[in-house]
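hey
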């Protein structure tokens, strides 16, 4: 039997008119591969399987073969998964995804905001997709800081814990974090488009709304890059000596609002994230009061890793400047609905109305929970988080608990696992579900294309 010593991530795909047909194709590959005189090349076998895959077939299986894994073991695991009754348990059969019939519904891209940044985010994807550097270069041309954006995102290995904290603090700065998150989100959007994956709708959380407007073609990429830099600078400059803090509170937003009202603490409910979480924003002293109040009421609360009290009066001075910047860009018709944080509804088609709504963005609470509920009511059944970490994925699961949906992130492991593995899982999950994924570019030398 030929063993595999490949260090490359591979994707194998199988499709047919029935579960048995898919099983037969996988079993035939296993039989051929295990012959003593077999001269099969793993990469060539994987390529042939991807080329033969048809997302419109009734039955579909997609499988990730990690570096160093033996193909026979993976194929045997896939066959065991196909023998199991009902849906395949992805926890038991890691990296193996199977689906039948048509896709479950429309798909949406969700884009994270500030707080999701971390050192070395997206590094594996940047290294694997050469043209990712062009996105970074375009943002660098607008960035204009003491360090380059690359140096903030991918600094040298820290000397000690103090140096590590310093690097994280630098990346957390509002005028750094927002362009950095936007860069990674745009790169990830490019990557998904290369595999022919496009959203039916888009939404973002706070800053992420700009990424969503770009993905939905409501603003151009150039204007998105400019707005990302402008928004970060304006918000960084708006905060005074006390930039304030934000506190995530594990309770229903209505309960949090009542608690704030009854105590008279000068904070605002800035984010209505899910039925289990809201976020308060305000001065450091007032947020500290809420920390004690939550503790006294046995309510879990956690300070967020952000540089200022966003969506509170401490940064309202940035709103007028942001509206002036919006006048310098063009709001486009756009092919898909992009849901607003302020209204929880799609942006209006009219350019002036859409610009006015975007102008209210900084000074309005984020109604993320209502956005997700409205998107689900409008037929969205799959939510893909496009950007660093998987914060929004958790909020979707909390909001739609008990409903029929699927939510997952392109950065599911938040850098703990290979970014290529996380990407492969997203592609396999969606391809097996019947979405029109084109797996053929997986090993193409020039992976990103406009």
């Amino acid at each position: 039997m030929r063993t595999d010593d490949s260090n490359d991530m591979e994707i194998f795909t199988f499709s047919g008119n029935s579960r048995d047909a898919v099983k037969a194709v996988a079993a035939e590959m296993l039989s051929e591969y295990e012959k003593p005189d077999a001269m099969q090349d793993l990469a060539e076998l994987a390529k042939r399987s991807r080329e033969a895959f048809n997302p419109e077939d009734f039955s579909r299986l997609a499988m990730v073969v990690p570096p160093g894994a033996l193909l026979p073991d993976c194929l045997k695991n896939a066959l065991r998964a196909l023998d199991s009754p009902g849906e395949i348990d992805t926890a038991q059969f890691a990296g193996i995804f199977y689906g039948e019939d048509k896709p479950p519904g429309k798909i949406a891209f969700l884009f994270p905001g500030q707080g999701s940044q971390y050192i070395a985010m997206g590094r594996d994807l940047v290294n694997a997709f050469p043209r990712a550097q062009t996105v970074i270069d375009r943002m660098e041309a607008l960035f204009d800081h003491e360090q380059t954006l690359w140096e903030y995102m991918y600094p040298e290995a820290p000397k000690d814990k103090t140096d590590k904290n310093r690097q994280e603090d630098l990346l957390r700065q509002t005028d750094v974090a927002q362009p950095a998150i936007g860069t990674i989100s745009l790169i990830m959007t490019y990557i998904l488009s290369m595999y022919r994956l496009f959203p039916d709708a888009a939404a973002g959380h706070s800053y992420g709304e700009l990424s969503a407007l770009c993905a939905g073609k409501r603003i151009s990429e150039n204007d998105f890059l400019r707005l990302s830099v402008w928004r970060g600078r304006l918000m960084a400059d708006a905060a005074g000596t006390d930039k304030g803090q934000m506190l995530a509170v594990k309770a229903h937003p209505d309960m949090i609002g009542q608690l704030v009202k009854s105590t008279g603490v000068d904070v605002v409910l800035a984010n209505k994230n899910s039925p289990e979480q809201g976020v308060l924003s305000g001065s450091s002293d007032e947020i500290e009061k809420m920390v004690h109040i939550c503790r006294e009421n046995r309510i879990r609360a956690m300070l967020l890793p952000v540089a200022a009290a966003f969506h509170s009066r401490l940064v309202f001075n940035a709103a007028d400047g942001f509206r002036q910047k919006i006048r310098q860009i063009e709001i486009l018709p756009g092919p898909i609905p992009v849901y607003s944080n302020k209204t929880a509804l799609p942006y209006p088609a009219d350019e002036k109305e859409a610009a006015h709504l975007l102008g209210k963005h900084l000074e309005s609470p984020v109604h993320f929970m209502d956005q997700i509920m409205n998107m689900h009511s409008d037929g969205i059944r799959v939510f893909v988080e496009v950007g660093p970490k998987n914060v929004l994925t958790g909020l979707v699961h909390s909001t739609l608990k008990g409903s029929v949906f699927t939510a997952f992130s392109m950065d599911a492991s938040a850098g703990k696992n290979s970014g290529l593995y996380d990407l492969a899982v997203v592609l396999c999950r969606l391809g097996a579900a019947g979405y029109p994924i084109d797996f053929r570019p997986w090993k193409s030398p020039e992976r990103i294309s406009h």
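The chain has a mean pLDDT of 92. The chain has three domains: 1-101+417-450, 107-238+312-409, 245-303.
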